[in-house]
Amino acid sequence: MDRTEQLCSAAQNGDLEAASELVATVYERTFSYLRRRCSNDEDAADLTQKTFSKVWTSLPSYRRQSNFATWVHSIAHHVYVDACRTKQLPIAEGENWWLREADDAPGPFESAAQRESAEQLYALVAKLDEDAREAVHLHYYQGLTLEQTAEVLSIAVSTVKYRLRRALDFLKRHIPNPNVTL
Fold it and tell me: How is domain 1-93 classified at the CATH fold level?
């Protein structure tokens, strides 16, 4: 039994320390996913809190049919969709939110060319239809496998592949900088 399964079992039996450690293993990725979708920290924090509230109340029914991180992503996705449906979220600012964020540490944009390429790519991803954009966020930004992405979205793997292929085709057609590789 791996560490996550041990933590799940202990948390399901009411161990608060185990539950806290379990949440810590996926908190940053969950917040990051919701931050990209909401485009602001406050809404992302609210939805992250709602997500983990649902995780806690649903933990007794977690049956390990998928890994814990995928299960949490699925809950986060549904929390986000519900918030959009009930219009609890303001109109998203797009993918430019990260330009306002301070970063003192060396990051992935060490050169102006890399930063320009990333800006172009993020802007194009923001223009994708919601289904394709969601698949891109989960698979490429969050690093979920095709199977995990399909599970989170409650669709077939072939549908995920189709949406990603459609997104990549769009990006290749519209990429203004030939130095950007997909």
Answer: Rna Polymerase Sigma Factor; Chain: A (1.10.1740)
